[in-house]
C-alpha cells in the first residue's frame, strides 16, 4: 500500500471515530470502521485519537486501567461455571474424513486468540462508541498485545432467564426440575429433560448474548447462572443473534464451546462421541484436559469430533459440517417429493384395494380423500385439521405440527376377511425423532376411555418413550403385527428397522406379510424380517396420524403421501418398480 493511500484510509478512520461521537454509524460505516482499524497502524491511530478526545474531558488515564480491572473481574464472574482447566498442550495432528485437505500446521493459541479477538473488538468499539472512555480502552487493548478480554456486554447486560418460545411434539421426561411451558422463564440451575420433540428457547433476550437454541429430543440441558446453557447430552443448534466475540457459550461434556455473534452452530453429544458443527460464523472449542487437546478454532463449514472410545477415529477428527445430523436445521420443504402420472400408473398396475393420493378433499363435513383403488367406498375421512404442502405438481399431507388433532380414518372397515398376505405402502417424511403412528389398524370397538386395541402398527419409534420398548432400539421404524388385536405394548410380532429412519427426508416404507413371513422394507431394501403364521384380522378401522380414532394421542409428526393397501404381498420387483417410477434410485435386481 502506498503512503498516500494509507494516509487517506487513516483519515477516513479518524473521520468515522469522530462521527461516532455525535451520531450512530450506519451498517456500512460500521463494517468500514472494522476494516480500517485492522490496517497497519489503524489501531494505533485510533488509540492516539481517543487519547486526544479524552483530554477534553475530566476522564483520567487511570479509568482505562480500572476498566481493565473490571474486565478481569467480569471474566472471572462470567466464566466461573466453565470447566476448571483446559489442556494447553500442542494441538495434535488431526485425522480427516471424506478426503478433506488438512492444513499442515495450525496457529499457536496466542496467534489464534489474538486474531479472533482483533476480529471482534472493532465491533465492540463501534457498538459502544458513544463513550470516549470505552473507545479509549478498546482502542488501546487492540493496539497492544492482549491475551483475552471478556466482552464488555457480559459486565453490563442484565441476565435474563431463557424461555421456551415454541415446542413441536415435545415429551418431557422425569428427573428435571420442572416441565417447561411456553413463555415461562427457566431459571438458574433448572434441568430440562426432553424425551422427544423439538423445543426452541431464546436466551439472553435483548442483550448481546441473545440466541435462538433448538433442542432435539432426546436431550438434557441445564441453565447456568449467567442465563446461558449447558448440554448434558443430546443434540441442539444455536444461532447467535448478537455481535462480538464469543457471545454465546455452552458447557458440554467435552468442555466449553464459544460462539461468535451472528454465528450458527450445532452440537451433538452422544455417549463417548461429541461433535461441533459450524454452519456459519466462527466458534472455539475449549476441551477439557482429559481430551488431550488445546483449543480448536472452527471456521464456517468446519466440524470437529472428539471421542474417548477405542475406535480408530478416537481423539480429534476434523471433517465437514453437515446439517444432516440436525433435524431442526432443515426446513419442512427439504427434499421435495415430486410424483407424476408415471408413479400413479405403476401403483394402479399393482391393483391396490385402497390408494390415497392426498391431492385434494371432497364431500361435505367431514371431508375425505378419495380412494383411487379397487374399493371406492373406502375414503379417508379428515380428523381435525391436517396441513398440506405442495411440491410442484404433487400435494402431500402434513400432520402433527399443532396441538390439535390432524389425522385420517375410515368409516368402512378393512379387510373384509382375514389376510395371510397383505401389503401396506406409503411415502413418509418424519419431521423429527419421535414415537408417532404413521399407519395403524385398530379394532373399532372402544375398550376404555377412548382406547382401542390394535391389529397393526407402522410407526416411527423414539429413543426412549416407554420403558418396555427400549429393547427395540432407538429412532427406528417399527412394524407390529398382532393377532388377535391387543393394546399391550409388546404383544404380537415386532419388526424394527436395522438403521435409524431419516429426519425430514422422504422414505418409501412397506409393511408386508407373505404367508408366514413378515417383512419391513425401507427404500426398496429389506430392513427387518420375522415369521408369524397368524393372519391379519378382518374388519379393522384404518388410522393415519394417531393411535386412537377419537383421541389425539401419540401423533405422527411429519408428512405422508401415496398410501396404498393391498390384499396380497407385493413382490420385491414391484416395490422397487414403484420407487423407480418416482424418479428415485433403487437396485434393479
TrEMBL record:
InterPro entries: ConA-like_dom_sf (IPR013320). Transmembrane segments: none annotated. Residues 81-94, 101-110 have a biased composition (Low complexity). Signal peptide: none annotated. Residues 65-111 are annotated as: Disordered. This is LamG-like jellyroll fold domain-containing protein. It comes from Rhodopirellula bahusiensis.
